[in-house]
Design a protein that fits this description.
Blueprint: E1 12-19, H1 22-32, E2 36-41, E3 46-51, E4 58-64, E5 75-81, H2 85-94, E6 98-99, E7 104-106, E8 110-116, E9 122-128
Parallel strand pairs: 1-4, 5-9
Antiparallel strand pairs: 1-5, 2-3, 3-4, 6-8, 7-8, 8-9
Length: 131
């Protein structure tokens, strides 16, 4: 990874909206914000990547509350970039947080997990692969 394309640790790298009505919310944010959407096949259903209409860059996702998201409430989930997700997960547990699921591989992108901090707030940790 070169200095020019290094992802800043601690920066927000992504946001996902987890809901049980992705089709409706996808259309809502297309009209309200102006996003374009692209389906992300998840087997029996689609999640959606939300793209800027200006440059086709993905900025967010709208996900079904199924699979690894089945226990998450409907809300916008922030993904924080980290350098060592396994160490971060150990620290979450040691410091009174909760790991909602072990780190999963997002092919071609890196690893992620969702945590709940000691105050009850949720976020995701994301360790990008070096390119």
């Amino acid at each position: 990874m070169t200095k020019e394309n290094k992802i800043a640790i601690g920066s927000v790298g992504w946001v996902d909206l987890t809901v049980n009505n992705t089709e409706e919310l996808k259309k809502f944010y297309e009209k309200v914000i102006g996003f374009k959407s692209a389906p992300v096949p998840m087997g029996e259903y689609n999640d959606y990547t939300m793209l800027s209409p200006d440059d086709n860059i993905p900025y967010a996702g709208i996900c079904n509350n199924k699979g690894p998201n089945k226990n998450l409430p409907s809300y916008w989930l922030v993904y924080f970039n980290v350098s060592d997700i396994e160490l971060c997960c150990e620290n979450v547990k040691a410091l009174g947080g909760e790991l909602l699921f072990e780190p999963k591989v997002m092919n071609g992108y890196g690893k992620y997990c969702v945590i709940k901090d000691p105050a009850g707030a949720y976020c995701a940790l994301f360790e990008p692969i070096e390119k």
